[in-house]
Amino acid sequence: MTTSRDDDFDRGLKNRREVLGEDWVTRSTAGANSFNADFQAFITRYAWHDVWGRPGLDRQTRRLLVLAMTMGLARWEEFELHCRAAVRGGVPLEAIKETLMQGAIYCGVPAANTAFKITQEILKAEHVTLEPAPLVAGRRVQVHHTFSQPQLRVALQGAEHGVPIVMSHALGLDLGMWDELADTLGEHHPVLRYDQRGHGGSAPQREPATLDEMVDDVARLVREWGRGPVVFIGLSMGGMVGQGFAIRHPELVRGLVLANTTARYPDEAQLGWTQRIATVQQQGMAGIVDTVVERYLSEDMRQREPAFAQALRERLLRCDPAGYVACCHAVRAVDWLDGLSSIKVPALVIAGGRDTGTPPEMNRAIAERIAGAQLQLLEHAAHLSVAEAPERFADAVRGLLKRAA
User: How is 5-35 classified by DSSP, letter by letter?
Assistant: First the structure.
């Protein structure tokens, strides 16, 4: 009697094909012989069904665990097989890289060196392009912490000469938000990025922060750097800091880029901030992360770049909830609108056409109050416009840099 019911071998075979690919599994099973057939059946049932089919870990985590363990045991044939399958299976390259970096500590540098070499050969064979990142002067990122308090993590890179640039990130993120733009502008300019207080590698912030405090953080950074006056580029919370920086420390500013930000929230927005603060206090970053990702990235971007959206989600989850809440208090109270007319430096205001957090009219209100300010609308971008429209964002900034030179 025949039956269509799958047994454990069939279930394991399905998992094996999904992880390693049809060609490899067909060669191993359909090509089995009287000597190795029992072995192939054994690993298909017990490894690929009983282990790979267990609940508790998602498929990507299991893939990365296998890479780490085969690297640690120097099982390079298995490592190469699973690494190639991971690349073909869409595991983000950043996740593979971080697994190998972790292995450099716990498996040893020689093992990690071999693993990186094999992985790069696989990427080349799979036609994955890797951007150059030479560790030479001007391109290498130097990471420091301020001696002044609260300590802030600072990243420096770029040319020795040119208009100096300072970049300030959005709420819940860190200086890594600017990686691509900093690399682009660093070809001709010295670039400083920093983590806001309570974020990234900067000092924790337990008490509610104020924008005045965060503005003074930038002022001491620029003075310690000794490169002012600077062109300040800020997005969202960073743009709020930038407005105050230009108003309260005009001698340190020669140009201003304010992206996806506001100078004042309407009264009805206060309830939303109060609810967000309460949610994070009760549930941590997990309580708001999905909502924030949806606000930061348009639906088109999330569907087109799922790995980027996932990386953004993970970065938000790493944010210290106490630091996030502390800065929420500062952002909620933003009120620079009446002081914007005092800003006399070249200014560029960038808005996202799909930004629901700080919609175009909020950015337009800023541009209208700064004499000579230019407004750039990125029609298809949501809140994190530098990620959704990087080339147009960079081109707009280059135009401002010329005006501020």
Answer: ---HHHHHHHHHHHHH-HHHHHHHHTT--TT
